[in-house]
Amino acid sequence: MTRTLEKEKIKGAPESVYYLPDFITPEEEQILLDKVLSAPKPKWVYLKSRRLQNWGGIVNEKGMIAETLPSWLSDIFPRFQETGVFDGLDATHRVPNHCLVNEYLAGQGIMPHKDGPAYLPTVATISLSSHCVLEFFKVPEVDKETEDEHKQTQEPEFSLLIQPRSLLVLKEDVYNKYMHGIQEITTDDLSGGNIVNLAEAFPEGLSHDRMELERRTRISLTFRIVQKTLRANKILMRR
Ligand SMILES: O=C(O)CCC(=O)C(=O)O
Ligand SMILES: [Fe+2]
98 in ligand 1 pocket by Cβ < 6 Å? Predict the structure, then answer.
């Protein structure tokens, strides 16, 4: 049965958040993990609390010098299309042209942030290997510096338990008006943080002895559409 985004709304979360458990199979998860982990060493960019790979090009303000995504990433596009992940965007932009791979060891995370105007406001994330808790903070329209100060003192407005093999889709309002982040901790307490999708994340039910979840290494694949792209040959000609 085809699952569509419309059926995957979460009670207690804004309209534009969708969570699809078991979007890929364990076999597909293993293939993706093997591909990520066998990428050439220079493909990894090391940050203080995670490492990442850019596929499709490097995004900057001027635009992205687009490279075709490898087939091990674009093989999932038909499933995105069946599910309607990128529907509603203008017709020239229905498939992602960029994939950011993030790897978090247990205890690593990402500061609350907005993904920003370089991308169209639909982002689709597939998770591999470990869960995480993604926290959402609503921000008034303020400049970047203020946002940074804002986050630490605030409780999240809502959180999502993101299980391995799931797909998370953030669109419109939640993309534009909320920041999202992952705390730098090794164990998640599922009874805190206002996690609104526990029923979806544990379809078989949640017993009390499972209120704490220990993190393992998590790899996430975040597919996005970069609006401004440049062709490599044009850049060379301008030099
Ligand atoms: O790993 C994730 O699920 C979130 C990644 C993220 O927010 C980003 O790269 O902008
Ligand atoms: Fe993000």
Answer: no
Q: Is 178 exposed, middle or buried (0-12, 13-18, 19+ CB in 10 A)?
A: buried
Give the number of other CB atoms < 10 A from CB of residue 52.
18
Q: Which domains does the chain have, with CATH numbers?
A: 22-139+155-205+213-229 (2.60.120.590)
Structure ipTM: 0.98
Residue for token pair 């942030």: 113
Distance of CA 56 to the CA centre of its chain: 16
Per DSSP (E only), the strands in 95-146 are 98-104, 110-113, 122-128, 132-138
Q: Is 110 in the pocket of ligand 1 (CB under 6 A)?
A: yes
**CA angle at residue 87 from 60 to 113, to 5 degrees?**
40
Of the ligands numbered here, which is closest to the C-alpha atom of 222? 1
Across 100-109, 124-133, 191-200, least confident range: 191-200
